[in-house]
Structure formats: structure tokens, C-alpha cells
Amino acid sequence: MSFRYEFRLSGSGGQGLILAGKILAEAAAIFDGKNATQSQSYGPEARGGSSRSEVIVSDEEIDYPKAVNIDLLLCFTQEACDKYCTDIKDNGILLVDKNYVTKTPKGRFKVYSLPITEIAETKIGKALVANIVALGVITGLTGIISQQAVESAILSRVPKGTEELNLKAFNAGIELAQQAG
Amino acid sequence: MTNKPNAKLMTGNEACAEAALVAGMRFFAGYPITPSTEIAELLSRRLPQLDGTFIQMEDEIASMAAIIGASLAGVKSMTATSGPGFSLMQENIGYAAMAEVPCVIVNVQRGGPSTGLPTLPSQGDVMQARWGTHGDHPVIVVAPSTVRETYDWTIKAFNFAEKYRVPVILLLDEIVAHISEKIVYPKDEEFELVSRKITEKDPASYLPYENTDSDIPPFAEFGVGYRYHVTGLSHDETGFPTNNPEKVDKLNRRLNRKIERYRSEIIHYEESFLDEADICVVAYGSAARSAYRAASDARKLGYKVGIFHIFVLWPFPYEALSQIARRVKFFIAPEMNLGQIAHEISCAIKREVIKVNRVDGGLITPNEILEKIKNVQL
Fold first, then answer.
1. Do B2 and A37 touch (CB under 8 A)?
2. Would you call B105 helix, strand, or coil by DSSP?
């Protein structure tokens, strides 16, 4: 049986979800040696407007690159959560940022409501790295992509001079997942 | 870790820009527009490193004119745009076809008409790519569906342009352009590169639009001592305008024959699972990705479904489809337009095509194709 794992990272433009998706895909495809694609859907605005980034990881060639039967859905806005929670497959994972998503839906999936942005602000000192904290949580919760691979991908994608800050954010996310798991 | 040093996660736009450099492209003129902008962005950094030229022009009309000029000076040239910009380029694409100037135009399709959906995919420019500029004219249009195919077909697009002295249109769409996926970097030596045939005649006896056996006149680049005239007006072998019906007829017929007679060398498609098939899904560009998934899902359910994947849209593979129609009864065409290629398929197979169309900015899902497969009355 072939293996296919679908991530959808959703929220609004400017939250760094497309970059987070690219890092996940690069970790899986380049550093873990699997196949992965990342695609996106966003509006014409530079900030705001809905934004979503989808990552497919598989051990086979990936033809259709969009998520239809989601294994993990990350929501950074209430709107995204309301819109996409029905696309999660049975026993899948719904991960929401506690500060943005106050009403979590019920369904045949596990719900993790975690203070992702709050940790980015208080522990790392920059709300900007919430996307990288989320990557840590996703890595910890799913085990689909190795921690080492995601670290390598972060280092290859984030701007020079911010490596340490981002790795700190990633580790904070891993810790958050351990506490929640 | 199976980390191959030459494996890289890259987007279709990045692959297009890098492959163009491998093909020998050293002149890019363009005007940024979503979803093609990354091609210009990347080339603005890479071309100066290679002693090439990058110019951001005032608009797409000028961009197209600039690459024609650069190509006439002997440099492989390219521009990249999307829907609205592609519309503006049409007049000068016709000029390139008429003056037989090799060049590559990348059109990353987005939702239309007009400014439409800047960030969302479409395949609405298939007919515009063929017939957007006026008059009977030669053109070659290629449409890859993955990042690796984009890399390969960008290089082939330059080879076609150089070999046949025509504008070649590389039709991407937002999905192919923006998707990130792994490609194992091919070695540059893996690609055969073609450059335009240069004249062996001396400047005094050179005829820039000579009627030769191949129908493709040898080229003399500007600035090396050959003086000749280039015009969009109908011209004779010297390149100067003429209204002589015999000469004009000869020119127009040669211009179009130049592609038609070589169509078997240019056309490219891939067949899979068609030998035993009852149903053939004909697809191209990113919709082909959905088609492969739908066909494999359908085969698991017992349906005999094959794929006819078109890479070169123009010239269109009428002959091959007509052959397949002798043994396959039903044809399904998923397209992110209202059936632009479905009509061409109908012409080839002499019967109706089952269409699956989306014009809402979304990629056709495998399920949408699968439903049509299930509804076929075998």
C-alpha cells in the first residue's frame, strides 16, 4: 500500500504559511529522501486575505498535488478552521493556534489547541516566528518528517542571521508538542 | 539519508529560469506579473553573473520588441508574462513569426479574461497561444505539467525556436509555476542544444529570406557585416516589402509549411495504459496530474482507462488521436477552460468528447474526472 500524507497549513496572508510549507516539503524531499510537493492558494493581497499552503509527502511520485483527505490541518484563523475542518480524514489531526481559534469544531479527528503565537512572543520574543514554532509542533505530533531534516530545511530557507532565532522557535514547538502529546 | 547532492526542491518558475540559462539564453526583457514574476526575479540576479542582459521594460509590448531585437543580434532571448501581458505581446509575436526571429515567450496562465484571477491557475490561453496574433502564422506551443518537465521543455523550446526560426510559447499555469517539488538536477551535458543555422554566403550574395530546400533560411546576425532589411510587411527573399502576389503567396506558404512539414519531429505526447483501454483521458499541463490520479483510481475500480498526455499542444497531434479513436470509444478531456482542446480532439476523433471543465480558479480534482469515467455507458 502506498503511503501518502497530506498537510494543509491555513490562515491569512503574511503569517508565513507558504514558507512553512516549503520548509516541510524540503525536509521531506531533500533531507529525508521521500517525495514531496508544496503548492499554495492565496489572494492578490500582500497581507491579509486567506492563504493556504499544502504539502503532500509520499513514497511514490506525486501526481495530484492538492490535499483532499487531510492528515494534518493547521489553522491560524477561525475562518480557516471553520472552512477546512470537514476535509480532515478520520483519526487525522486538527492543530489550531489557541489565540486565534476560539471555537474548535468536533469531529472524528484529534484536536490540539495550543498557544503557538503566544509561545513565539513570550519565549522567543517575536510573534513573527509563530510559523516556525508551528513547524516544531507539527514535527513533534506527526513523526512523518524527522526533526533533523526539518532543522536542516529551516537553515537552508530562513534569512541569514536569523538561524539561531528560528531553531529556538522550532525547538519551542517540539517541546510544546511533547507537553500536549 | 538519501540526500543526493544534485536533488533540489524547486518551483516550475525557478526550473524555467535555470533551464533557459542552460539552453544558452543570455537576454531577458520583461515586465513583472503574477504568477510569472519569479522567472524575472531569478534572472535579474543570474544573468549579470553570466555576462547576460536583464532588462525590466516599461511594458509587455516593449518586452517582446526587445527580445526580437536581441535575437536578431544573435543572442538567445526570452520573456515571461501572464494573461494580460500575453495579450499585449501578441502584435510583436506576429512580427517575430513574420520576420522569422527565434525567441521563447513564457506565459504562466492565470484566470481570465482580463486581469481575472492573478494568483490562481487556468488553461484559458491555449487558443490565444495558437491564434492570438493575426494572420496565418507559424508557432510552436509546449505545455509541461511538472517541475522536471518544465526544466526539460524550456530547453526544448529554445531548440525549436532556433531550429525553425519561430517564436515558441512555453505555456505554464499557476500550479506548475508555483509548485515546489524535488527535481534531480540533470547534467547540462544530458541536453542537446541547437543553435540557428548561420549562413555560409558572403554579405554580397546573402538573401535573408531565401527559399531553401529546408524552408528555413540560414541566419546572419546583425553587426557582423551583413546588411539586410527586417520588416513585418510581406517581403521577398531580400527582406524588402512587396505586394507581388506570387512572392507574397510563396512567403506565406513557406512560413507555415516550415512547421507543418516538420510536425512529426515537433509533436510530442505520451500514452499510458491505452492498449486495452475503453476510455482515453486526454490531458496537458497541471490538469494532466489530476488525470493520472483519476485514471489510476479508476483502474483500481476495474475501469479500463488510459491517458494521452500532450506535451506539444501546437502543432496538435491529430493523427495520433485519430489512430487511437479506432480502438478506444470514449474520450474525456479535463481542462481549466471551457473546452479549448476538446474541440481539437473532436476534429481528430470525429466524435464528441466528454468535457470536464473548471473556470473558477481551482485545479480539476481527480474525483471530477472519475465521476465522468463512472458515468460512461460502455
1. no
2. strand
